Amino acid sequence: MRQPPLSTVVRTLAAALPTAEPASPVRLQGWVHRRRELARVTFLVVRDRSGLAQVVLPAGAEVPPEETPVEVTGTATANAQAPGGIEITEATVTALGEPADTPAVELWRPTLDTGLPTQLDHAATTWRHPVQRAKWELAAASLFGFRASLDATGFTEVHSPKLVDSATESGANVFEVDYFGRPAYLAQSPQFFKQQLVGIFERVYEVGPVFRAEPHDTVRHLAEYVSLDVELGFVRDHREVIACLRDTVAGMVAGIHERAGDAVERLGITVPEVPAELPLLHFREALEIAGAPADEPDLSPAHERALGEWAMHEHDSDFVVVEGYPTASRAFYSHPDPDEPHWSRSFDLLFRGLELVSGAQRLHRYADYVAALEQRGYPLEAYASYVEAFRRGIPPHGGFAIGLERWVARLVEAANIREATLFPRDLHRLAP
Ligand code: AMO
After folding, report:
1. How far apart are the CA of 355 and the centre of ligand 1, in A?
2. C or N terminus of the chain, fewer CB within 10 Å?
3. Residue 59, CB half-sphere, CA atoms under 13 Å: how many?
4. Pocket test residue of 146, 170, 189, 232 for ligand 1, highest count of atoms within 8 A of CB
5. Counting beta carbons within 10 angstroms of the beta carbon of residue 45, is it exposed (0 to 12), middle (13 to 18) or buried (19 or more)?
6. Domain 6-95, second-level architecture
7. How many whole angstroms from 189 Cα to the centroid of ligand 1?
8. Which residues of the chain have pLDDT under 50?
9. For this structure, is 90 an active site residue?
10. pLDDT for the residue numbered 6
11. What is the CATH number of domain 121-420?
12. pLDDT tens per residue, range 26-45
């Protein structure tokens, strides 16, 4: 049978090459991952979005330098030594762009053995490393799982403004921008909008960037990160919100199993199991376990690590929820415990000893907002449009926000959140 002309052969992805019919014509597109010139033969490894493929060329063949985009046409040929048992022979290699400059790091090495600053300075190429890009594959699969679990339970995806007229979390770490000659701010969270949207849709979620002018250079803070926000109406209390959080995180894990099994393998990580019931501590007990003084207003990173160890030791769990933080140390919209208003119906979820999620039942009565703002000395006018919404029937509600980069950083047990961020923004970095 006559073979079709190579130019009309549909593109084969590297991962599909092992299923190509031996002796059939194939066409591959990707990057030159590695060239290896031996005495009698030249090997070319091509990398595309799906993986790596081996191409065999005669000794001395001209091959564009590493990282040049190329098209390879040739014949699928069985070879037990090739990855997946099939390689491409009788190949023609055509560069699809200028020969690439030598990258700052050798991407063909099994691990990316370079310091973090170099990695970040050259993010556009270092993320090409198969192990590095696996981290974002985890993020993407988690986003898929996040959306799938919420879509299945009656949530509506929303998008709220990122240019806003007031600080949502605290006035301290807000970026001010010039908005047609008057001050505006980059949204620190979709908090005020997701609560108002409960009044329309009952259950909403948003995936989007949020901005924090973090003045500290830490391994867990970025100036811009991706916030996975959820808010649901008609809840009895924050425990119902925690149950939703549990199912959402389980959905993210399911998303990883469904879509990123290969990335998990490349990274050699252990994907956590989400217990049917998350271990739960009151803030008071959490302080005791962490060996902190009983009047401590919040948990420090060291306390969180201690609680992570406790959860693993006592419950064999990567997760632990702490509820009932002091009302005074949480945002003004948090609902106090009706019986002991000193404590709030708020919570954090710690994952492997790091705060991953904050959430709470919220105030839902207009008068409670007026009182809470007054008590904290915040001017009502600055929150006018938000607080007004509570005069028009917002049901009891609550929600939470998951930090995407923190999630991935703990999944891969990275020492620094920047290792799990495509193009991190921090005190010192605004490019690339
Ligand atoms: P909070 O400010 O605690 O709560 O943020 C929620 C989660 O977002 C992540 N996070 C960060 N990640 C990277 N860099 C930062 N600078 C940073 N700050 C926070 C953390 C954190 O747990 N409106 C509330 C949420 C709610 O109650 O629904 C809020 O934004 O993983």
Report:
1. 9
2. N
3. 4
4. 189
5. buried
6. Beta Barrel (2.40)
7. 8
8. none
9. no
10. 64
11. 3.30.930.10
12. 999 999 999 999 999 999 99
